[in-house]
Amino acid sequence: MQIAAATLFAAALAALTSFASAPGAAVTSPDRSVLDLGDSLSIGTGPYLRARLRGYRIARLHDVGLHAYDAAAIVARERASLPAVLVVSAGTNDDPRIVSTFVRAISGIVGAAGRRRCVVWPTIVRPPAVGATYDGFNRALVRAATRYPNLVLVDWVGMVRRHRRWLSGDGVHVSVAGYRARATAIAAAVRTPCE
After folding, report:
1. Residue 17: φ, ψ to 5°
2. Which of 33, 147, 171, 178 could anchor a disulfide with 127, C-beta 3.0 to 4.6 Å?
3. pLDDT of 143-169, one tens digit each?
4. Domains of the chain (ranges plus CATH)?
5. How do beta strands 85-89 and 57-62 pair?
6. 32 DSSP 8-state letter
7. pLDDT-derived band at 194, boundaries 50, 70, 90
């Protein structure tokens, strides 16, 4: 997984770089560049996020089974070439009993991003797995957001709680309306707190 992710990441960053340096390319501010790094929820959200962030250069690195610790390793490895904003959708595929590993992944991502970059992270909606809920992960995100001012949370849990009809049978993935709403909330976080 790490070799494939590293290759995808390099391609995504090359796309950002080539867009910025292409002759006749529109000049956009460096703070209008985004890395959309995530799991299958990012795949579903991606087309709608791009539509809601017109004028932003968005590099996408999506892996259906992405774990938070893999995302942290990718961000740490590529820290020097990261764009201004990271949108992270990770944790849904992780073991909810091991909150300490998730906490290290959050710290690793936000730490590698540095204070000058913004990290947007939707909270996690998933049915319990291996006898544990994802509440511990969401509490870890909330605690991290109070510690790191550049970590901006999207209240995906609250949104889904208000719109249960979005959920598919697996309790993780959502309808088109859900992905659109998720993209709208992420874009608002990118445009407002991150700028």
Report:
1. -65, -45
2. 171
3. 999 999 999 999 999 999 999 999 999
4. 2-191 (3.40.50.1110)
5. unpaired
6. G
7. confident
